[in-house]
Amino acid sequence: MTGPLLLPLPGAEALAARIAKACGFACGALDTRRFPDREHYVRLAFDPRGRNVIIVGDLPGPDDRFITLAFVADALRELGASHVGLVAPYLGYLRQDARFKPGEAVSSRSFARLVSGLVDDLVTIDPHLHRIGGLEAIYTIPTLVVHAAPLIGRWIAREIRHPLVVGPDAESRQWATEIASHAGAPCVILEKQRLGDREVRIQLPDLAPFRGLQPVVVDDIASSGRTLVAACAALETEGFPRAVCAVVHALFADQALAGLAGAAARVVSTDTISHPTNAIPISPLIAAALTEQAVP
Ligand code: R5P
User: Fold this and answer.
1) Over 60: is that where the pLDDT of 294 sits?
2) CA 266, CA 285: separation in Å to the nearest integer?
3) Is beta strand 199-203 parallel, antiparallel or unpaired with respect to 191-196?
4) What are the catalytic residues?
5) What ligand 1 atom has the least distance to the C-alpha of 198?
6) Rounded to 5 degrees, what angle do the CA atoms 255, 257, 263 make?
7) Considering only CA atoms, which residue is closest to atom 14 of ligand 1?
8) What is the three-class DSSP state of 61?
9) Measuring CA to CA, which residue among 155, 152, 157, 154 is closest to residue 167?
10) Which of 47, 176, 202, 271 is the most exposed place for a label (fewest CB within 10 A)?
């Protein structure tokens, strides 16, 4: 019997190879290019008949990759794949999960419906869930959520002397406390007020008991980077050493990383999104999830 085949979307080849190595699965390949008018051309460079194919690709700024995903998933089905799964280490379009102003599109729901129509199941890492309790509220296919907290916690324990894990806002409490427990470090949660897409205000609680520790600001996502910059600046003003930042999903839009250069001592991320800050590989987590749930 032939085992599952991992199929990387463009840009995810290295990650898929690491996952494949950890699982003992094979990798398939795509032939992709653009027509002169920029439309996408996709060809499967293997025969998917009867195969369990797991597409691997993060979906940041997902519009472009979504089209490729749609073409690949349809081609797999039409050409006889027995199962089409998706590993999206970063899953986009979770921010707009409600209609805050009249007339707004609830894009998280629409995107979930589109993805649910393409693949049989989905594995992802730390999705950015706020007002919805779980992916099952918007996805109609089976979903499996894997958490990067143990890996980040162990990285902190290995790399940082006398760490203090800092969650920059109330939402971060869920992962900051778990990261701290894996790091064997104390944890504090700050208060954040978002004033705009690129403007946040941070308030610190009483940090006197933690003087002398090295702050490590942890978050699920760095997008504009303003949350990390504000948290680092507030901690430094209080007399702490310049903070280290560790995030799961390194989106870092535009000049976000440059903006952090003067505020953080070091910035690291997991490799859910390929980025120069990647220092914590998540392939072992995905491999464990896939080998537990692999469909032969
Ligand atoms: C917010 O709730 C999230 O956990 C992150 O703190 C936020 O998305 C970071 O965004 P930015 O980098 O734009 O401040």
Assistant:
1) no
2) 24
3) antiparallel
4) 192
5) 13
6) 115
7) 227
8) coil
9) 152
10) 47
pLDDT band of residue 296 (cuts 50, 70, 90) is very low
Strand-by-strand arrangement of the 278-280 sheet = 187-189, 163-167, 214-222, 243-250, 264-270, 278-280
pLDDT tens sequence across 83-110: 999 999 999 999 899 999 999 999 999 9
Tokens (6 digits) for 202: 């941070």
Q: Which of 190, 223, 275 to mutate to test the pocket of ligand 1 (most atoms within 8 A of CB)?
A: 223
In this structure, which residue's CA is closest to atom 3 in ligand 1?
A: 221
Strand pairing class (243-250; 199-203): unpaired
Q: What is the pLDDT of residues 185-238, one digit of tens each?
A: 999 999 999 888 888 999 999 999 999 999 999 999 999 999 999 999 999 999
The DSSP element (H or E) to which 78 belongs, if any, is helix 63-78
The Å distance, Cα 250 to ligand 1 centre, comes to 11
